Amino acid sequence: MISFTVNGRPAAVAVPDAKPLLDTLRDDLGLTGAKECCGKGECGSCTVLMDGEPVCACLVFTAQARGVEIITVEGIGGGPEQLDPIQAAFVAEGAAQCGYCTPGFIVAARALLDKNPHPTAAEIRRGLAGNLCRCTGYQKILQAVAKAAEGRAD
Amino acid sequence: MSVDVRERRGEGAEAARSRGALIGQSPRRLEDARLLTGRGLFVDDVQRPDMLHAAVVRSPHAHARIQGIDVSAALALPGVVAVYTAADLGHLNGPFSVLIPHDDLQHGRGLSALAVEKVRHVGEAVALVVASDRYIAEDAADMVAVEYEPLPAAVGLEAAVAPDAPLVHDGVPSNVAGHYVRNVGDYEAVRRQAHLILKERFRVDRGAASPMETRGVVAIPEGRGLTMYVSTQAPVALRAWLAAWFDLPEMELRLIAPDVGGGFGPKVMMMYPEEVLVPFAAMRLKRPVKWIEDRREHFVATTHEREQVHDVEVVVGADGTLLGLKTNFLYDSGAYSPYGIQIPIISATTLPGPYRLRNYSVEFRAVYTNTPTVAVYRGAGRPHGVFVMERMMDRIAEALGLAPMEVRRRNFIQPDQFPWDTGLIYQDWAPCKYDSGDYPALADRLERMLVGVADEVAQARAAGRLVGVGMGFYVEGAGPGPYEGVRVRVEPSGKVQVATGVGTQGQSHFTTLAQVVAGELGVALDQVHVVTGDTAAMGWGIGTFASRAAVLVGNAAYLAAQAVAEKARTVAAALLECTPSEVELRGGRAWVGGPAGAGEPAGAGGSAPAGARETVRSLPLGEVARRANPLRGTLAFGEPGLEATKFFSPQQSTFPSGAHAAVVEVDRGTGFAKVLRYFVVHDCGTMINPMVVEGQIHGGVAQGLGGALLEKLVFDEEGQLLTTTFADYLLPLATDIPAIETDHITTTSPLNPLGIKGAGEAGVIPCHAVVAAALEDALREWQVRISEMPINPCRIWELMQR
Amino acid sequence: MQVAGEFVFQAGRDAVWQLLNDPEVLGRCLPGCEQLVPVAEDRYAAKVRVGLAAVKGTYEGSLAVTDKQAPAAMTLRIDMKGTTGFVAIAGRMLFEAGEPDAPAGGEGGVASTRVAYDWDVKVGGPVAMVGQRVLGGVAKWIIGEFFAAAKAELAARGSAV
């Protein structure tokens, strides 16, 4: 059994050590928010936090998560009725289109603002340069993260 | 963003304005909360306890004869449930029909589920492995032993039409699938009176749409039939084809396009092999089967686009008037032609652009090559036509010493010349006749946005930086028929269900269609629940492509909502003892009495305000619906309930237009080009939701800039695709795309009630042309000619070495 | 992909020719070669394991030598297939006798032979897609290892004589 914490709750899974953490989260724990897009750490769609650090869950072996605290997009904010300020800013700015890369952006943006609560525009761009989006051209995403950083609710 | 409404024909804008103030507003998206919290449902999120997983065995050769397939080792692997080859599918293997036949497609060739005898491109499906999990399925796929006899491959457009080229298909001479010739006016006659003749060869290379979600298919045997989840842009059409293919009653094949992670064209293609293979396996094995394409597969198993080579000649008068244009081009169809010659037809018909082109000669050959099949990708041939025309406009300007904008202005179709018939037949088999537009106004707006830019550029250049400006105009055919339909129903709770057959891949249909309907029915936006892409909810439809959803579904929703509102007024009038015309729908209730708009209640469930005349009475809309659907007695109001299904079928396509400009800087040392500023002026007619339109434009521009500067699919001479990761095929990052500055004008379309023209593809269309012009300007000291796209830093650096 | 280069052996042309036509030597020198079994004259069944970057995997197939013009030239043809795709190598190898070194001490100089190769390397399937960026490097590494091992063989033979 491999034990760790996901979104504040204990989890224990009986999976091979080398099973990608992304697959474990999606298949064994039912947390399908993180998405597979490239499967090799080039797109950021599967971003989750491991002890606060953003990682591509497709590149992490489940065994590496032993004893670690993992936060997925499902653990950011209190769900659809109680959005995190970043999620609320995404809604206000129209920063999501198809929604496939979006969970990765939310997690990456959370990590960025946790480390640097008041980033410059250039820092936001660089901070999100590990996440690909094919729908939005990034502009509204960058605006949303800036807005969340400024603590503007709407 | 400012909006300038010009009513060319009037009625469209009139309808949009009079109906609910919701059209033209930008409410927050109704679909966001679940997508932003990881609660969307994409195909790969569909899970079943007894699900099997499939992997596809694919050809490593671009062209080879299959001499034998040995599946025994794969079958022997524990966990493997089945391995299928073409022989197992029998007549279900295909080939499938060509989707869009055409008289000028002389040798159409459809796809098959699995290759028989020969493979014709790297990645072509050869066998399907089904196993208890995906890891085993993929291991077993590696163990399927296929004996190939490699054959010489036809790779590259010019090489494939050379006399000694290998043939992709038997019976297709010179690999030419289709040959198309059209003449408008008399090009040769006008050529004889030319002041100036300019010639050039232009090349646009291959690209991939690369939606973040790859393709995926889940088939679940349920009840008597099958439920399928497919990442497709055309769920209803796909269901119809699949039900016919498997000889199933449509009732027994429910197809759902759930949340789809981007489409951009390739997902409108059907039937892809896996869309037949997965349900076949599920029915054989009587268990749910899931197949999810991985990214490497996606690069070779999903359709590509964009490869064309044009030889162009223009005839120009002394004042810069474009007297005639002739192009002869090759279009790479890849190994098959499921989409026929739609893309090159779109290129041919988009090329004239916003200009008075009266003598036009166009000829193309669609060519088979041993490369993955080509079908539509956002823009779908439009960028090529625009690239050719806009580059020639810049050449004319240069040759005559005129400003680029001046040459364009001298050739614009004028606002009083609509409808403007180009003399061509468009891809929808209707006349390519521009419905509305104001191209000089686009130019005015663009010039206004560019005020000060020339000074910025001059300063940068004075400081030794390589900075340049380029522009491009376009007119694009959008919103083609034949039709889309919407069913609107008021439920007894007062909630409104809106069902449409098109799928949605991020276009915000859950919000924009709700806006159209909510305005008509006078209900709150969050009371409208839109269902897209579920054949159980709506069994008629074509699909989401060609910037058509807002035009067709938007108008169908408008018509259906109007019909429901009409009936609601009739029923309410009987209940409230008045005439239907006295009933007003607002706040989720049917009102009678009092001056229109007076005594607006607070909130949806509000009652008549204090002080209102006692004649003011109202009923909740849900109550009206219930009374129209009684449990006893007879139906007093025609059909039961408050429901209507309406279809909208336009006579022809609409023609949105726009003008873009870019400021681009090239690094002297590396040739790396960075887009510093990007400007868009856009006219898509009525906008239902400006925020959504803007998002579509941003995304389109980002894809266009990627396609101009970063993204190129590279094959070796054997037909091996060398760019199958995002480290090789470079999608733009947040650091690559500048802030995009947008402005709009609105000339409404007379072709539909809401005056909408469509916006989905607009952003991408002129980017090639704009970037090429800006690069030439930035590199003026080298006098480079940019006549190819995409152009990466290596190529730019090469040009700078001359 | 074209891979061309040359390698100089400090030995006479006949000795180098013999060396590179000895299946035992080839089998020992080819990195990762697990099996090299003669199936006909100048034709072998081969099994090679490669463990480099994306070009990882076991490849099976054939190695053949044709168009021999002893001791001056031959054509080498290798066709290998594995779970991650196929590799086909074909090309000419030229053996040129070099000028003997002018010995400092006065006695007869050491003969040398220059082996020039010009191979067309075709790679297909997933290995081509994923490995393209590293393929040139991998090919160079394998060829370098091969000639280095062959040189060592030659030296061993020399000392054994």
Shape type of chain C: globular
Q: What fraction of the residues of chain A are assigned to beta strands by DSSP?
A: 5-15%
Radius of gyration of chain A, in angstroms, nearest whole number: 15 Å
- End-to-end Cα distance of chain C, whole Å, is 40 Å
**What string, H for helix and E for strand, traces the elements of chain A in order?**
EEHEEEHHHH
| Helix/strand/pairing category of chain C | alpha+beta
Fourth CATH level, the homologous superfamily of the largest domain in chain A:
Beta-grasp domain
Q: Can you give the helix content of chain C as a percent range? A: 25-40%
Please identify the oligomeric state: heterotrimer
CATH topology of the largest domain in chain A: Ubiquitin-like (UB roll)
State the CATH superfamily name of chain C: START domain
Largest interface: A-B, 56 and 56 residues
CATH topology of chain C: Alpha-D-Glucose-1,6-Bisphosphate, Chain A, domain 4
Strand order of the largest sheet of chain C: 1-7-6-5-4-3-2
Proportion of helical residues of chain A? 25-40%
Number of strands of chain C: 7
**Largest sheet features of chain A:** 5 strands, mixed
Q: Runs of chain A with pLDDT <50, length 5+?
A: none
What tags apply to this protein structure?
heterotrimer, A: 154 residues, alpha+beta, Ubiquitin-like (UB roll), DNA polymerase, domain 1, 5-stranded mixed β-sheet, 5 strands, 14% strand, globular, C: 161 residues, Alpha-D-Glucose-1,6-Bisphosphate, Chain A, domain 4, 7 strands, 31% helix
How would you characterize the overall build of this protein?
The complex is a heterotrimer of chains A (154), B (802) and C (161). Chain A has 154 residues and is an alpha+beta fold. Chain A folds into 2 domains: 2-75, Beta-grasp domain (Ubiquitin-like (UB roll)); 85-151, [2Fe-2S]-binding domain (DNA polymerase, domain 1, Orthogonal Bundle), CATH 1.10.150.120. Chain A has helices at residues 21-28, 85-93, 102-115, 121-127, 139-149; strands spanning 2-6, 9-13, 47-50, 53-56, 69-71. Chain A is globular. The N and C termini of chain A lie far apart (44 Å). Chain B is α+β, with helices and mostly antiparallel strands and 802 residues long. Among the domains of chain B are: 15-38 and 481-648, Aldehyde Oxidoreductase, domain 4 (2-Layer Sandwich), CATH 3.30.365.10; 428-479 and 653-802, Aldehyde oxidase/xanthine dehydrogenase, molybdopterin binding domain (Aldehyde Oxidoreductase, domain 4). Chain B is 27% helix and 24% strand. Chain B contains 21 helices and 30 strands. In chain B, helix 11 runs parallel beside helix 12, helix 17 (549-576) crosses helix 18 (621-627) and helix 19 (690-709) packs across helix 20. The relative contact order of chain B is 0.14. Chain C has 3 helices and 7 strands; from the N terminus they run βααββββββα. Chain C has helices at 13-20, 23-29, 126-160, and strands at 2-9, 33-40, 43-50, 57-69, 73-82, 85-98, 112-124. Chain C has a 7-stranded antiparallel beta sheet with strand order 1-7-6-5-4-3-2, covered by helices on one side. Chains in contact: A-B, B-C. At the A-B interface, helix 2, helix 3, helix 4 and helix 5 of A face helix 2 and helix 19 of B.
